[in-house]
What we know:
- This protein has helices at residues 7-18, 21-28, 32-46, 62-82, 103-120, 137-141, 186-190, 206-213, 227-235, 281-296; strands spanning 51-54, 57-60, 95-101, 124-130, 146-149, 160-167, 169-174, 193-197, 219-224, 240-244, 255-259, 267-273.
- It is α/β, with parallel strands linked by helices.
- It folds into three domains: 7-82, Arc Repressor Mutant, subunit A (Orthogonal Bundle), CATH 1.10.10; 90-167 and 268-296, Periplasmic binding protein-like II (D-Maltodextrin-Binding Protein, domain 2); 169-265, 3-Layer(aba) Sandwich (D-Maltodextrin-Binding Protein, domain 2), CATH 3.40.190.
- The strands form three sheets. A five-stranded mixed β-sheet has the order 4-3-5-12-6, covered by helices on one side. Strands 9-8-10-7-11 form a five-stranded mixed β-sheet, with helices on one face. The protein has a two-stranded antiparallel ribbon with strand order 1-2.
Amino acid sequence: MSMPDFNLLVTLDVLLAEGSVARAARRLRLSPSAMSRALARLRETTGDPLLVRAGRGLVPTPRAIELRERVGQLVQEGHAVLRPVEKLDPAQLVRTFTLRTSDGFVENFGPALVARIEAEAPGVRLFFMQKSDKDSRPLRDGAVDLETGVVDSATAPELRVQALIRDRFVGVVRLGHPLSQAAISPVSYAAGRHIHVSRQGLDRGAIDEALKLLGLERKVVTIVGGFSNALALARASDLIASVPERHTGNLRAGMHSFPLPVPTPEITVSLLWHPRLDADPAHRWLRGHVKEVCASLR
């Protein structure tokens, strides 16, 4: 059995990215005829036309669409394997890292992280992107370098995961709220008017299940997509917010917090990244700082 020409992977990656023989040829500094011959070899090797004519342009076949992400990852991993390992000098590093995370994470851990990075690597910028869903595609596509969140069934299985924070939920009300004046029981907690946090718009969660075991039910008045919004509402009303304690420490300043009167499971907030960046020295350096900042702010 003859060995395949692995150089064709680079050609295929560029062809699928550009969707044009002429543009792919310019990008690889080849003549259009040489690129056409390479496409013919790819078609023969894969047994699929890969790119077919549609009007004046070319469109990928279903097989090409299936291969696009895998081929891109293989090429990137190949470059990483063959690139000489260089000792990282953070002071000389010029790069922008994109972190997809919640407002609470930025509020509580962002200042310390930015200060560390600025002191050690003045050429590095951090772009904090708001996390509005659990879609893993931004990490897969390379649009995001790091992400924080709770790992669940929606998390892509190939992602690397490192635990950052163990957290528990607490109740939060404005100062002067009736619940800030006395001991809180499951009954008094359930009797209040509540804010529920759910990106999917669900009106029930683990707290409701815990209350149900006691024969109690809370009244959810409103549903919001994030903990910062829940706390903003609770600060200006008699509503009760239930939020992660460590994740919202600064956001809860000037409010009354209390342990929930019903048992709820702890959550683990983790750091997530795509495996293609696992060995990247600069990425590894940044991951280390994120972990250290989260560990120091207890």
